[in-house]
Amino acid sequence: MKFQKALILIFVFIFSFSNAQQDPLSIYRGERDKINNLVHTKLKVDFDFANRQLNGEEWVTLTPHFFPTSKVTLDAKAMLIGEISLGGQKLEYNYDGYEIIIDLPREYKKGEEYTLYIKYTARPEKVKQKGSNAITGAKGLYFINPQGLQKDKPIQVWTQGETEASSCWFPTIDAPNQKTSQEIYITVPDKFVTLSNGKLVNQEKKGTNRTDYWKFDQKHAPYLFFMGVGEFEIIEDKYKNIPVNYYVEKKYAPYAKEIFGDTPEMIGFFAEKLGVEYPWNKYSQIVARDYVSGAMENTTAVIHGEQANQMKGQLIDENRQENTIAHEIFHHWFGNLVTTESWSNLALNESFANYSEYLWREHKYGKENADAHLFENSKIYKDNKDLYDKDLVRFYYVDKEDMFDAVSYNKGGAILHMLRNYLGDEAFFTGLKKYLTDYKYKAAEAHQLRLTLEEVSGKDLNWFFNQWFFGSGHPKVEVSYDYNTLEKTVTVNFIQTQAKEFKFPIAIDIFENGKKIRHNVFVDGRDASFKFSFSSKSPDLIQVNADGVLLADFFENKILSDYIFQLKNTENFQHRREALLEVVKSQDDKKAFNAVVGALDDPNYKIRILALENIDLINKWSKKTAIDKIKRMADSDKKTLVRAAAIETLGKLTDPELKPIFDKALQSESYNVLGKALVGMYYIDKEYAIKRSKELPLEVKNIIATPLTRIYIEEKDDSEMVFIANNVLSGMFLNNNPKIQAIYQKAYEQIANSNNTDAIQNLVNDIVAKGNQYRQFNFDKVGINLLRQMVEKQKKVNKSNKLKNIEVIRTGIAQLVQ
């Protein structure tokens, strides 16, 4: 599972959605007891689109785990049960809407298999369990525009099983420590394509309908079952002789291979890196509407949310789905082949999938690029202070959904990077190969990973697992330096200030006379000191955590000259970034300004962008030289995102002489460059910029909605209010950029005070839709508040459509209050 990080953090921040009033220590959350084991699941399903229901027949084969039993309990949420039988004999059962407790006709012993027949109706709209910050729905089965009433949205059906929502559409033992093979007969209108796990064995037409038979012979957990139904184009690819297919809407078919085309290379790279060949018979990916998370690793049938859909003008900047694609592929080893035995051990799934993003970027783009990703990934965990006290493997929590956070994902990925660094690549990856081989098609816990790595490496890892896997927090370290100029030595002192003591290896670089010497030391206490020799008067810089591996916060007293040297000479992304953010504070100093200008040539494009965003061009030092450099970057930097940032920086100058640069940028294939150029042009030639913006196709306008909104809001262009209204809510809440939020807050105010009924209707529709979609985050209440504010604003204006507008808004309130 790949969650949408920005969305989660913003919702948590805005709505303060928390279960903190409950005591998370009250219940131990271990592995579910195995009384009966799933063996095989056979389903026949069709859909009642009008009522958003599934009609199902199931043949589920089970066997006692160890002790004899005459009962079996199956999870089945909000279903209507028509019949339960065994060998034609109807069975007695009790059903409370959540579990079916079935009386078997006799006692069965370990090794004896029995097959239950269950006829049922799944009613996902009746399901009462809630989703999480990461997975915003938990009803298992989703009907999208089922009656085709929304003209701009296709009819689709798809499932989402994690964590325990597969039991919303078929009875099962819905626990990650269960494994079953499967076969599914899916009956749909003939115009639809279907996708499920495993192989499409047969298709049979029946009038206007068709039944697709999907068969999956290997074992996997119930939460990985998947069905997808809709009108999709299938773009074929392959890895070796294994089919690799991409299911997308027709509009995105020309770009499917640009979006997903690295999939075969990713599969091959991970197989080689792990020493374990891809274990399944196909790999398909489908992009669905209104999906409730980022993506999900259903075995051989991965689902992605709409953010995967991209046009050429977006892909030329970067493929925003690339990390997610790698993440879900890696799950096919960590999560699908070997599965966490309990949600408490979720790190065995998600931390590894998170770390796969680093591995892929290291392979494809180099270590420096991967290190930048690691830093940004870890920062998401660090920036959320509420996560500091959460263990990676945690057996006490309020709800299993709470496990899907930046500890299980981001911090877990960083921990695996530290473990790899400590063991070395050969031992680390040999250990992972053994772990995957020993526990394939089984469930595992963190201790089994530890024992496997210990067996391979010969090292005791209890200390590492106890503090990082079974503990919380990270080191907070004060660093100081004692110089002895007579002996030409420096002592580097570490003092840990957090409550719990950590021990860790750490790299220290000492720079002097144009050379760098690396020292690898091991901190084994709250206070630690290490003495090093130097040959010159004093070192130019001492850089702790030089390789950026250790997940920690460091506090040290550096002066401007230290940061300037650090910006120019350190190799790790996070150290150059840290230095740049300090140096930009002192640009009235000539050396500091020149260092910022120098950062415009940094090999990492994110450093170049950061320098562009922060450079002070209202500065007496070499202003013309710097502007000339930025002009060249706007024209020819190899990264279009840097060109866009350069154009935005030049736009702040509002200099008519820059018009040719903006005009040329308006021809760019990059939508990012195009959007920034329109804004830059607007401030020197409003009429021309507005004319060019209105000539854009609507699909392009929607992609660059933010810069266009900025222009139209400043222009008070009422004719564009309908377009702006479609993006206001996303701009206000679904990003973490205060500048963008301010633009859309202004847009909301203008629409709320306007006479434009169509714009008001669009905004109301969006508020109602998102209020319902994110009701578990109390966004329905936020939506009601926004709509009530609109009513009050309309009451105060003297415009012709006032009463009509108020009625539109009140209708929206009524829809959210229901």
UniProtKB/TrEMBL annotation:
Signal sequence segment: 1-20
An annotated Gene Ontology molecular function: aminopeptidase activity
Keyword Protease among record annotations: yes
Gene3D superfamilies, per database record: Leucine-rich Repeat Variant, Neutral Protease Domain 2, tricorn interacting facor f3 domain
CDD domains: M1_APN_like
Entry-linked Pfam families: HEAT_2 (PF13646), Peptidase_M1 (PF01433), Peptidase_M1_N (PF17900)
Cofactor requirement: Zn(2+)
UniProt keyword terms in alphabetical order: Aminopeptidase, Hydrolase, Metal-binding, Metalloprotease, Protease, Signal, Zinc
Family the entry assigns: Belongs to the peptidase M1 family.
Descriptive protein name: Aminopeptidase N
Organism: Pseudotenacibaculum haliotis
